[in-house]
Amino acid sequence: MLSSFGKYISLSLRLNVVEILNSLKEVYSYKELENITGIPSSVLCRYVQGSIIPSIDNAERLWKILMGKKFIKQTINRFINLTSRHEPQITTLFSNPKFLTLISSYLTNRYAGMGITKVVAPTGLSVSLATILSLKLNSTLIVVGERSEFYRFNPKSFIKKSDNLLMVFDLLTRHKFNFTLKELGRSVLESNTVGIACIVLVDSDLSKEIPSKVFLEYLIP
Questions:
Q1: Which residue of 1, 32, 120, 137 has the lowest C-beta tally within 10 Å?
Q2: What is the CATH number of domain 107-220?
Q3: pTM, entire model
């Protein structure tokens, strides 16, 4: 018999899967999702509409399929194809709550169990994703911005030796990476950082400069 905590975990998984299916409906038809998951479209429709929720077996099956990296990358391309050629694609993606729901679930799954205590992001589009991740990972959010007369926040003062950091970027460029490290102190890359997540790795050479113990996750390219 499941304990109260076990029941909570089971129910959370089942509801998370429904939330993910709801996000996927923006870029997939029910028939396409049936072909991908092997679950009848009529059942998937009832999940999304809230008539029923998946059994734990179906939830685990759906989670394994829908949280696969290959599928997530394919789905990102579908979201990109929704945008107009006249719109900045990355901006449109990060203003889409369905996209953020899907990507935050994927990244939470990738970094769960790593003891993340602080989620760090530079000001800009990254903050929306970092905020959701900090909630899902039960961690403190630190936003790193240019200091001015009106912004005197010093992120270094909020980082302890025992902290495990996850850095989050929309586009991981050398400029954003170096700026974030400058504000945090470059030593955190070796001592505190356990993960770096981004949607687009712009400068591939950066991956060679990141310590092997740091789990780098990117989805484009």
A1: 1
A2: 3.40.50.2020
A3: 0.90
